Amino acid sequence: MSQARLSVVIPCYNEEKTLDSIVERVLAADRCGLGLEIVIVDDGSKDRSVAVMRDLAARHAEIVVVEHGINQGKGAALRSGFARARGDIVLVQDADLEYSPIDYPKLLKPFLDGRADVVFGSRFKGGEETRVLYFWHSVANRVLTLASNMFTDLNLTDMETCYKAFRREVIQRIRLVENRFGIEPEITAKIARLTPRPRVYEVGISYSGRTYEEGKKIGWRDGFRALYCILRYNLAR
């Protein structure tokens, strides 16, 4: 895949403080020689995110902008981004600074070697720098990953990770319906149910999580929704 093109999909909601920085880091991270497309989906932000996004698009030809008139959730933003992506590989990047594009070479290597169809970036695989934050969040992530693995028969360590990358034909085969953070277990379940099953890899990534004071959005209700989604999308036929 030496001539492969990369689409980075960035869902954005009220991220005016970090959007410019993360886009500049994405632009600087293309060290694998891939053509780069950045699809920013603003999900009805109430701050200046749209203005920042439009300014970035005016300065960088690689950027495509999609605007939702009202807030629908991360899942809805990802659906719009996946539908618009034109790259051979599609990678999800949050608009905050929790996940670093410096990890792109590791995420992309299994694709470029011709070994992978899907790659997850794990915050728990070890050997990488991780900010120490909420104990019960890490417990919930591991419990949800275990529950997901029991149904999908995958041996992931971090199902809830933002960093998921796909061959475009794989992610565009899946019909996604979740609007919020339930999109993570939904994607995982539906990837596992594809025939033939895609080749899934996992690599360790760094992680600099935010506190709620710094803008973290996911809450305990999303954890219960994730458990519901694990059951719904793995048991539905």
UniProtKB/TrEMBL annotation:
Domain Glycosyltransferase 2-like, chain residue ranges per copy: 7-174
Superkingdom to which the source organism belongs: Bacteria
Gene3D superfamilies: Spore Coat Polysaccharide Biosynthesis Protein SpsA, Chain A
InterPro entries, per the entry: Glyco_trans_2-like (IPR001173), Glycosyltransferase_2 (IPR050256), Nucleotide-diphossugar_trans (IPR029044)
A molecular function GO annotation: transferase activity
Keywords: Transferase
PANTHER family: RFBJ PROTEIN, UNDECAPRENYL-PHOSPHATE 4-DEOXY-4-FORMAMIDO-L-ARABINOSE TRANSFERASE-RELATED
Protein name: Glycosyltransferase involved in cell wall bisynthesis
